[in-house]
Amino acid sequence: ARPRILTLNNETAEIQIKTDEAIGLASNTTSAEGTASTVATAERVETGVFLKVTPQANIKTREITMAIEPRVVQARSGQTFSGNTFRDPEERGTKSHLRIRDGDTIIIGGLLRTDISNIKTKVPILNRIPVLGAAFRHKDLKETERELVIFITPHILREELAGNLYPRKKNIIREQTHPSQKMRAVDQALSFIERQR
Question: What predicted TM-score, i.e. pTM, was given to this entire model?
Fold first, then answer.
């Protein structure tokens, strides 16, 4: 993904690449008779990649100081109990304060993500044989570790420069509510900056 965002000086911008995932939770209850039981409930949690950036631009030196907060949220592989699978959300993140010149690129790494998948293999027909069929079925748990690497290239957009290109620049973000329209406006502004460099 190569998302682009436009924000004001000292204002926080956020990118979210997420899914709304159901997480199974287990709770223990005890009846009046003293019988203990486990009740399974589901809770929805937002998982994915989240990035917050707060820029502070110095027009004279063309430097940008940024507070950067990337987060990775995912559901850990669950355990099965009484036919229910329970998974816990897991979050990793960092906070950084960096200074960079206009147009330079920052690279942030070190956020690891583990993807776990169950792979089932079986021999057709033979795996259906009662009792003996289990010998022709195989389950394998595969873990894939990935590192999230983030590239950030900030640009300072002068209001008077953008105003010449867009007479209605001040109202672009306010008036355009459709995400695709906002993205086109951001892409046009950033492309114009690149041509001026």
Answer: 0.58
